[in-house]
Description:
The complex is a heterodimer. Chain A is an alpha/beta fold. Chain A is built from 4 helices and 7 strands, in the order ααββαβαββββ. Chain A has 2 domains: 5-87, Fe-S cluster assembly (FSCA) (GMP Synthetase, Chain A, domain 3, 2-Layer Sandwich), CATH 3.30.300; 91-161, no CATH class. The radius of gyration of chain A is 18 Å and the shape is elongated. Chain B is mainly alpha-helical. Chain B is built from 11 helices and no strands. Chain B is globular, with a radius of gyration of 18 Å. The two termini of chain B are 18 Å apart. The A-B interface holds A 50, 52-56, 83-87, 112, 115-116, 118-119, 137-144, 148, 162, 164 and B 26, 40-41, 43-44, 46-48, 50-55, 57-58, 125-126, 128-130, 132-134, 136-137, 139-140, 142-144, 146-147, 150, 206, 209-210, 213.
Amino acid sequence: MAAPDAMLADIRRIAGDVADPEIPVLTIADLGVLRDVRAGDEGIIVEITPTYSGCPAMNMIKLEIELALERAGYSGFAVREVLSPAWTTDWMTEAGRERLRAYGIAPPVGKAGGRGALFGADIVACPQCRSTDTERLAEFGSTSCKALWRCKACREPFDYFKCH
Amino acid sequence: MTSISPSNAPLVQFLLRRADDALILGHRLSEWVGHAPMLEEEMALGNMGLDLIGQARSLYQYAGEVEGAGHSEDDFAYLRRESAYRNVLLVEQPNGDFAETMIRQFFYAAFADPYWRAMKASSDPTIAAIAAKSEKEMTYHLRHSAEWVVRLGDSTAEARRRIEAAISRFWPFTGELFSSDELDASVIATGAAIDPDTIRAEWLATVQSVFVRAKLTVPTSTWMHRGGRSGQHSEHFGHLLSELQYMQRAVPGAVW
């Protein structure tokens, strides 16, 4: 099957617009979960990568991509999971970070890859009042990718999207 | 439903050993869901369990691919007999109290974090990819459990009594993490894996630095339990499997 660039771009846009089921203000393109759309021997291949190994949203994302592409009239494609390179928050788009903040989730701070000290402290700004007088309540939050923090200035608890 | 007998090919067995460590520890953590001492820990224990079960899935999928006998991740997880599981004895030990669960997690994470970091250099690209994901996750497990070790160690007399008892209980299970046999050696020789004993010094340095901070003493005893890697499990393991395998045994082939 010939797959002109315009068609691949269209598929990339449709697949990329699928919302993350757990953080619906972000699309999978914003998150960097959509890795590649290309023409393979047996049709179009859409590659996605999990944020965390146990991410329970992957099956849902795969289904949503399939449904979105079918609605747009595409067939003969396969959605595949790839593990390498390992997903990182560095791939999150600027627009995605701003949408996260507006949604009340502090976006990841800094670049991944640097290994923090075992007892190191991150400085995370409150997504509500922007104060950096905040403290971590728990390393783990409502999903694997988030931690639970509290702002000491406005007293609001908030989720922090961990730098990963 | 019959049980499956995986291939004895070294790479398959090597992958099952690592996958079983992750699955069984993840299962133990999942037992806390609904029982954790507070909501934040409920989420932490559940999330750590999820990470480990995710790592196990990737390793089982690859083991099935290498084996080429049509076994799925679920077949490996649910349809083996007790003696076919190859996890270290540390991870199958019952949760005990919160201090015991945290020490077990700390001992494992202090090993798994540097282990997977080193395994990113595996000559096998799939193993290297799984290692890269696992390392990132184990960094959180290490940080989280280390903070609890400090909080419990440098705390009230009761917390201290419990964490000291937990250390005594789990210390003799740590040696098996660094062990390897001929099967491992044949995989290590191909460059697909590293010798876990090369992680020992870093593990001990992490344990020492956290214990100093927690005002705890590192045990000096060198006698260690062995057996999990060859399928000889503790008496607790059958009970764990009866829970883990219950649904597939009661309703064979059940799917979501």
